[in-house]
Amino acid sequence: MAASTKATIASFGGKLLKCVHKASITNCEMAFNLYLPPQAILNSLYKAPLLIYLAGLTCTGDNGAEKAFFQHAASQRGIAVLLFSTDQRCTPAGGLKIQGEDDAYDFGSGAGFYVDATQEPWSNGYKMYSYITSELPQTVFSSFPQIDGSRFLKNPGKYRSVSAFAPIANPSNCDWGKKAFGGYFGAENKAKWAEHDATELVKGWKGNPLDILIDVGTADNFYRQGQLLPENFEKAAQGKGKVNIRWQDGYDHSYFTMASFADDHVNHAARFLLG
């Protein structure tokens, strides 16, 4: 279903749109933020390439738009930014209302982990993988002609670049991932776990050489607790291309860190989206 715009906010010469749409995959109304750069506002012929921001655990697209400020560099490079939530919290008008989904911050609402759950009751709507790779981009491209969908959906792959802030890089081996994957896929279905574990996936990578930017703060408490495990990903990616993990001295697991280096991540994407 086409998206409707609930609010429009001027930002860095462009427009930040607060949007909702009825999603069939997740069985509820979903919300997202879309930033249109000034080039797409001022020139009706300009088609902006799209950068997608995947929110982290417990976060939403509002957090990324209002605290990380990807709009700054995106406005300079003429790139649109799509920002949304990691889960099915949906909107006040929607919601799945599955018993127990609000009981913990690291599972259920606030922690969808971008997977398609196979275990009941989560398989009823907790299908964020299908949503973010299919229904959401199709909705955005059909609703906003200012965006160049041909770049995003160019075969053989849908995506042109990737970067990350403090990612959960090896979820099969950290407490967060074990809890989520066990609940959504079943404790014994380790093959399914591997399909959504970046460290396991990169081991089998046979495509073009990778060029990945990752920022991790040395004061990140979740890194210190062993939840992120970027070293495991770096080791698994050896021989697959370039994995640039930048250890940012004194920075923590917050949007202050993201805002400090957001321009670098937009410019990293621009090398591929505008090339």
Describe the structure.
The protein is 34% helix and 21% strand. It contains 11 helices and 8 strands. The strands form 2 sheets. A 5-stranded mixed sheet has the order 1-2-3-5-4. The chain has a 3-stranded parallel sheet with strand order 6-7-8, with helices on one face. A hairpin with a 2-residue loop joins strand 1 and strand 2. Helix 2 packs across helix 11 (255-273) and helix 3 runs parallel beside helix 11. The two termini are 32 Å apart. 41% of the residues are buried. The model has no long low-confidence stretch (mean pLDDT 92).
List the helices and strands and how they pair.
Blueprint: E1 4-11, E2 14-23, E3 28-36, H1 38-42, E4 50-54, H2 61-68, H3 71-77, E5 80-84, H4 128-143, H5 149-152, E6 162-165, H6 175-185, H7 190-195, H8 198-203, E7 210-217, H9 221-224, H10 230-236, E8 241-248, H11 255-273
Parallel strand pairs: 4-5, 6-7, 7-8
Antiparallel strand pairs: 1-2, 2-3, 3-5
Quick rundown:
The chain has 275 residues and is of the alpha/beta class. It is built from 11 helices and 8 strands.
Instruction: List how many beta strands DSSP finds.
Output: 8
- Overall body shape: globular
**Number of H- or I-type helical stretches:** 11
Q: What's the overall average pLDDT, rounded?
A: 92
DSSP strand content: 15-25%
| Class computed from helices, strands and strand pairing | alpha/beta
Percent helix, as a range, is: 25-40%
Distance between the termini: 32 Å
Radius of gyration computed on alpha carbons:
18 Å
Following the backbone from N to C, one meets helices and strands in this order, namely: EEEHEHHEHHEHHHEHHEH
Question: The biggest beta sheet, please?
Answer: 5 strands, mixed
Unreliable runs: none
Strand order of the largest sheet: 1-2-3-5-4
